[in-house]
Design a protein that fits this description.
Elements lengths: L1 H8 L20 E6 L4 E2 L4 E11 L7 E6 L7 E11 L11 E3 L7 E3 L4 E3 L12 E12 L2 E3 L6 E3 L18 E3 L2 E2 L1 E7 L6 E4 L3 H4 L19 H12 L7 E4 L15
Parallel strand pairs: 15-16
Antiparallel strand pairs: 1-14, 2-10, 3-9, 3-11, 4-8, 4-14, 5-6, 5-7, 5-9, 10-13, 11-12
């Protein structure tokens, strides 16, 4: 377990073009600030409904962009609309009106089976440790990819209710899930950051047990993984010009040992 943690904490980000070089300015200063690796398909399909995923940023910036994945999907996935907004992290409501997100200038995007898309820049100023609600409206019937354990509550509207990505009050999001659906990364634009550190490994990285607080006690959404602690220490102990973002790519139950079975 110790070697997995050390290997993870020494890792460097593998991100889209422009995110891997430290200290860059302008349009290249993008760094992955939150991640959730997709690992399988959700047990229940989406049917003309919206999802609202709460993401917790390790570092902030003056804009964001999101990655939507369909890695395990067997059919194309149509996203009719997407938004981002500040969130309290406590429920499905947003703090202020959600900002529209586009893909190559369009609200709608089709993510091919086995593929992924990155959004355009969305002007949303954020800070370290901020929560951001990422909302997507999915049309048709499709089984979404997911990261099984979000260690927080995420939200869905009822099937057939359509697009509620612009809703700020959250009342339409009557269903919830403990997984993260569709969204696998949030980048921030911040020329002062020096890079992104990506932690990878199994449950010790993913966060298993991090929400436990005793018998019959759980703290979903408390952000108590060791990678969350590391991100907070980076912010509190390093000057702005030396900080890096932290992205958690752990997947519980996985292994890199040749002698073990693979999931």
């Amino acid at each position: 377990m110790v070697s997995s943690v050390l290997a993870a904490s020494a890792s460097t980000a593998a991100a889209p073009a422009g995110t891997e070089q430290a200290g860059r300015t302008g349009s290249d200063a993008w760094f992955t600030s939150w991640a959730a690796s997709q690992q399988n398909l959700a047990p229940t399909p989406l049917r003309d409904q919206s999802v609202r995923m709460i993401t917790h940023l390790s570092q902030g910036g003056d804009a964001v962009r999101i990655r939507v994945q369909n890695t395990f999907g067997r059919t194309p996935l149509t996203v009719d609309a997407a938004t981002v907004a500040p969130s309290s992290g406590q429920d499905a409501s947003t703090e202020g009106r959600p900002r529209p997100v586009t893909f190559d200038g369009r609200r709608q995007v089709v993510v091919p089976a086995g593929g992924e898309v990155w959004s355009d820049t969305a002007a949303l100023r954020t800070g370290a440790q901020d929560d951001v609600a990422v909302s997507l409206s999915v049309s048709g019937t499709v089984t979404p990819g997911r990261h099984e354990s979000a260690f927080r509550t995420n939200y869905l509207t009822a099937p057939g209710t359509g697009d509620h990505t612009d809703d700020a009050d959250g009342t339409a999001y009557t269903e919830n899930t403990g997984s993260t659906l569709l969204v696998s990364a949030v980048d921030v634009h911040n020329p002062r950051l020096r890079g992104s550190l990506v932690a990878y490994g199994s449950s010790v990285v993913d966060g298993t047990g991090s929400t436990n607080c005793g018998p019959d006690c759980s703290r979903p959404g408390a952000d108590l993984r060791w990678t969350d602690d590391l991100a907070r220490r980076i912010t509190s102990e390093l000057p702005a010009a030396r900080r890096v973002a932290v992205a958690n790519a752990g997947i519980g139950g996985t292994t890199s040992a040749a002698t073990c079975g693979h999931r």
